[in-house]
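for the recovery benchmark. tokens below, seq after
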């Protein structure tokens, strides 16, 4: 008899690019702030998740600010 059967899925895509990416960040070669395209207040988090899930408005990164 099987109980509490669990399937776990993961991804290992681009795992070898992390050291190079971290190096670029440390040397100031990448501006991460420019990737944040949409900001929401915590009270608007429902809208933030709905909008982010729609992938609209040339969205790159959505940030929800907690007071």
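predicted aa per position
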């Amino acid at each position: 008899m099987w109980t509490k059967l669990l399937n776990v899925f993961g991804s290992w895509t681009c795992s070898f690019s992390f050291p190079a990416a971290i190096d670029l960040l440390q040397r100031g070669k990448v501006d991460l702030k420019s990737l944040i395209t949409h900001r929401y207040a915590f009270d608007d988090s429902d809208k933030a998740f709905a909008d982010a899930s729609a992938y609209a408005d040339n969205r790159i990164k959505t940030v929800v600010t907690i007071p």
